[in-house]
Amino acid sequence: MGIILNNWEDYADIICHGFDMENCAIKLGASIMCDGFIKNRPTAIFTHYHTDHIKYFTKSLTHCDDVLTSDITKDALIALCGDALQYRQNFKSFRQGESFTTSTGEKIRFYDSNHVPGSVQVLVEIHDGTKILYSGDYNYPGIITPKCDILVLDSTHGDPHWSSYAEKKSVLRRFCELVHKEIVINKKPVTIKCHRGIMQILMMALESDNNLPQNLIYLANHKNIRLTDAINKHYNNMIRDVLYYKSNDALKIRNSKNPYIFFRTLGEESIHQEEYMHKIQIDSFVGFDSTIIEKPDMTRVNFESHSNYPHILEYVEAISPKVVITDTSRGSSGLKLSNLIHEKLNINAYPRPDFTT
Ligand SMILES: [Zn+2]
Ligand SMILES: [Zn+2]
Asked: Are 244 and 219 in contact, with CB atoms under 8 Å apart?
């Protein structure tokens, strides 16, 4: 037995919960689901704490024998969802390099995915020796590419128009230069808008840059402070303490003429001082050659936390699975990507859920 080309659905698939077509679960082996919910599966895994991956986290906690994450993601979820979580006996974490065997004997390993602090790829080995890898959100190169028979692939940016290359280190260096210019030279406070996890990567980059004043104040809301503390613990407390942006001390700083940095998540409400602050938005965009776009009121920095299209193909090629399943539930490129993988790499690839049938 083992995987043959036409029975891959018995081993891995992407299954939606009810009518929710955007947060579907990755089915791995006989007992495991990742980043979503499927009835009667005893083991749930969450690859990282972004909202399109943890919608069914609480539901899994009440239904599953084991809810598994990496050690950093566990602390991050406790920070985001509340301290009561640490008393849940079925909420377990393990580190990379360790393995976990489910109650049905399926073996799980995590590998860093270079997306946000704590994010992982998930490798499952089942009874007949078949290996299935779920990439999770990942950023290749810079990560291990475990060999497997079936690869379930995140498809964000899986379209040739995401081909621009923004090398992470150089983007971070230019970001630090930009912040330095505003804070030290222009003496202006700065707002930085970005996704969770990316925020902490930026904070760490600023700390290791050494060009910013030691006494510069960082402000953020409670959730982002808690998340920062949780991640910080795993990185030797690299990041300075962050002050709650509505505290009395913070209000004094906001009303002074001194520079400070206010970190906020995309979509979070702004503060009224923002009119006079320099605004930096960190996200990924297409159609511009430059990594940084300077507008009069805002600077946009193109920071890729997902692989771009050429790197997706390189990642799949490095793994060379027998079958690839592309995720169509998180983003719109799954169908196109499955065709391209088949065409360019001659590997059987299937979009799931498949909206074309
Ligand atoms: Zn993500
Ligand atoms: Zn995602």
From this structure: yes
Of the candidates 94, 105, 55, 51, the residue with the CA atom closest to the CA atom of residue 72: 94
Is the distance from CB of 309 to CB of 132 less than 8 angstroms? no
Closest ligand to residue 116's CA: 1
Q: To which residue do tokens 């613990």 refer?
A: 233
Spatial separation of the C-alpha atoms in residues 125 and 20, rounded to whole Å: 28
How far is CA 304 from its chain centroid?
11
By residue count, the chain amounts to: 357
- Which residues, in sequence order, are CB contacts of 75 under 8 Å at separation 6+? 118, 230, 231, 233, 234
Token output for 169: 């280190």
Map out the domains of the chain with their CATH numbers.
8-162+306-352 (3.60.15.10), 168-302 (3.40.50)
Ligand 1 geometric centre to CA of 136 (Å): 8
pLDDT surpasses 90 at 211: no
> What separation in Å is there between the alpha carbon of 73 and the centre of ligand 2?
14
Please write the tens of the pLDDT for every residue from 249-294: 999 999 998 999 999 999 899 999 998 999 999 988 776 667 888 8
pTM equals 0.95
Largest CA distance in the chain: 71
CA distance to 72, 105, 149, 232, 315, per residue, from 96 (Å):
11, 19, 21, 18, 20
CA distance 127 to 144: 23
- Which ligand lies nearest the alpha carbon of 195? 1
Q: Give 185 Cα–ligand 2 centroid separation in angstroms.
A: 37
